[in-house]
Amino acid sequence: MNVFILNAGRCGSTTFIQACRYVSNYSAAHESRVTLTGEQRLAYPANHIEADNRLSWLLGRLDKRFSDDAFYVHLSRDPQAWADSFMRRSSYGIMRAYREGILLGGSQQTDRAIAKDYLETVEGNIRLFLQDKTQQMTFSLENAAHDFRRFWQRIGAEGDLHKALGEWSIRYNASS
Known about the structure:
Strand content: 5-15%
CATH superfamily: P-loop containing nucleotide triphosphate hydrolases
């Protein structure tokens, strides 16, 4: 079974995959196929855990390829902290792409308004995608230790749960 960590970014997906490296019966990667197109973009190996915020823009293709034959995690965090993290990255990455590509400049909008709009859009896409999925769970960054234990159990993970939980005390890819 494949596992997809669906998220908008800036919510612990890097840490999630670091923790999953202690799962012995799955492979795990963060944004491992982002440069690929066509069939190769979603050609994940079996029994693989993938976190990639760009999947929120490929949900139709993800549904066609995996449908309800995968386990989906909806990873999120406190909305205020989330928007603040994106505001610190407003001039590059997904925020720049959203402002310039989706909002066609959005120059009359504040960084906060754009961050909130981006989050509302991506979160709405993920919620809609998950409506008919039977194998799914929500996961909050603020409740990571508890939620990761549930995740471990739900996917039948094997390995070193204690070491995996230790990863949640490390801040990876933190905004300055």
